[in-house]
Amino acid sequence: MNITRRSLVLGAAAAVPLVSTIRYAGAQTAEFNYKFANNLAVSHPLNIRAQEAVKKIQEETSGRVAIQIFPSSQLGADTDMLSQIRSGGVEFFTLSPLILSTLVKNASISGIGFAFPDYKSVWAAMDGDLGKYVRGEIEKSNLVVLDKIWDNGFRQITSSVGPIEKAADLKGFKIRVPVSPLWTSMFSAFESAPASINFAEVYSALQTKIVDGQENPLAIISTSKLYEVQQFCSMTNHMWDGFWFLANKRAWERMPEDVRGIVAKNINEAGVNQRADVEKLNSTTQEDLAAKGMKINATDPASFRDKLKEKGFYAEWKGKFGDEAWGILEKAVGTSLG
Ligand code: X2X
User: Which of 23, 160, 205, 215 has the fewest CB atoms within 10 Å, measured from its CB?
Assistant: First the structure.
């Protein structure tokens, strides 16, 4: 499915009417004036913690590094930004490992359905061997990736037509998925009708009923106001998702090593703090969304997992990722998948 540029702009504007960028005093005189683009609302913990990091970086480099944040896909949708981070049109960008897989094939391995049972296992894997493996793959594509992955969260399914209680409810469901083969494959296995749409266009796609539903963590359903255009929220926890903090390689290497150290330290620290914020937000947001009129239901993962197995989803992706990568994933989650 193709959504026009015009609906992209309208969608972003409709979702977030009061976007702003932050410019700190001294940006004019900085030696390194860099942009950080992302797809989330300014109120999401990712942007709040990034603002803190930017301020500290400016202080600790005595004003040599000024980073301006562009939230809410203001500079373009994720697939555009992935080109821009490679060419140097933007210097920093946060991206889901699954969308990154359109460039770095095996980056999406952390997004396999129902792989991680909880956050403890996520951080052990992503700060451990699995994260190390993926960062190695990313570096082969000439991008710089910071050590600590930021959190997006465990994803839940929202709908304007009814609750999703079991895998069978996903059959024929018109659902928006981010632009990534793994996402399309997963919802094809559920026999849904997945449409690849960048996040910048999601609010308007839901509002105009191009699709009936989407899936995202509660923190996004809340901060990007998707509850305004969706009535049902089904707690499927069907996969975990994060954001790799990427940098353009030439822009990164232009900074002297001590300056790079300050930038990396503050971004990684902010990422770890952001993980705690998102986890907390995801646990308190259910009540909030219910108060805003969403009907929230719990689900049992068994039927979803069984469906993925039955459709050969795990076997197919094991083949695509290869034995080495799959072995690292299975070791990280402590169980054989599929
Ligand atoms: O596009 C999405 O749904 C989002 C915001 O979760 C990602 O960046 C993958």
Answer: 23
